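Collaboration report, partner site 2.

Our partner group contributed sequences for two proteins of shared interest, and the home lab folded both. The records are reproduced in the order in which they were received, starting with the first partner submission.
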Amino acid sequence: MSEFNKDDYLNDLPDADDLAASSASSAAAGAAQENPAPAAGDSIPSDEGAGAAKPATEGETPANAGGKQAGEGQSAAEHGEAEGEKPADADGKAAGDDTLTPLGKAKKEAAEYLEALQRERAEFINYRNRAAKEQERFRQHGIIDVLTALLPALDDIDRIREHSEMDDSFKAVAAKIDKAFEKFGVEKFGEKGEEFDPTKHEAILHKPDAEAEKETVDTVVEAGYRIGDRVIRAARVVVASPHN
């Protein structure tokens, strides 16, 4: 057997460039045989009739993709405008004013002014009633203060009237004082023989009485005074009580 020589084997191999050229020429020849060139009278079939889609090359965007993106952009813009717009239901007053005629708007404004006026009138009436009550309360406090200061003098007049004779001038002064207090609503109470009432009488002494069937006023030591239902001072009395 002969000895293997590497250099001789490599020299017998064909060149790579020649192989590539021969492969390209063979492929072109095969393509020409499979798809012969049409004659001058033959019509070229249309891609639209065949229903074949034109392949997109690099850098080109398919038509349907562009339309989809445009539709998406338009819907997004419409959605943004819809969000930016204020619905009519959110502001019923504005929507109602837009639909009303000038006469309807005038009637609506007149109704609103009337309602506001009625509210103001009701508030004023409540304020006036509160002010009147406060004024009457302060007035009564003033009368009570004056009457409380004059109670000792009134008690002396009652004692003089009961235990001694009064001349005409003194009687006239005492009568004027009583009328002045009556003018301001002050009422004097507490008389001998009336039934004892702990809500308006102050018993300073209980005296047994065989003839008494219930507790009664035997002696009025100091008269009582009141304004309306408010007792300023209870009448101080001696009470006649039954034996049992």
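Second partner submission, folded after the first:
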Amino acid sequence: MTVPLTRSLYRTTAHAAGGRTGSVRTDDGRLDVRLAPPRKKVPGTTNPEQLFAAGFAACFTSAFAEVAAEFGADAAAARVACEVELGTTDTPAGYGLAVSLTVSLPGWRAADLQPLLHRADAVCPYSQAVRGNVPLTLLAVEHQDAPTAVADDRG
């Protein structure tokens, strides 16, 4: 279901040329990067999946901080890692993405973080944008531990 905006808070435009072997830049010039396909290691380049992962991680971190404050927690030291996987699918499009968000917060057990992750997922604009289209795994971990604690595959 598409949900229309009721008020615009920010708008930006990025321009791409040359696809995965070209470049992308924003109107204001704050982002201006050369691109290379994910499997090619070309110095000084990035790829669309890395850009998406960076944006999703930043957005989810903000949503998580907002939610953590509701629970009386200071999320300034929270860590959010966003893994974006590009792969093939059995659909006419042929390609798809899968996303995994791994979150830790000092002083919080992984199991206690899980409700905060669900709430942050509900308010994060990136989560809303991919809901129903991209498999998203939410993983709470003990701070500075390997991502093995409490996983929740949203779906």
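Feedback sent to the partner group on the second submission included the following. The CA atoms of residues 35 and 48 lie 8 Å apart. Confidence is low (pLDDT under 50) at residues 145-151.
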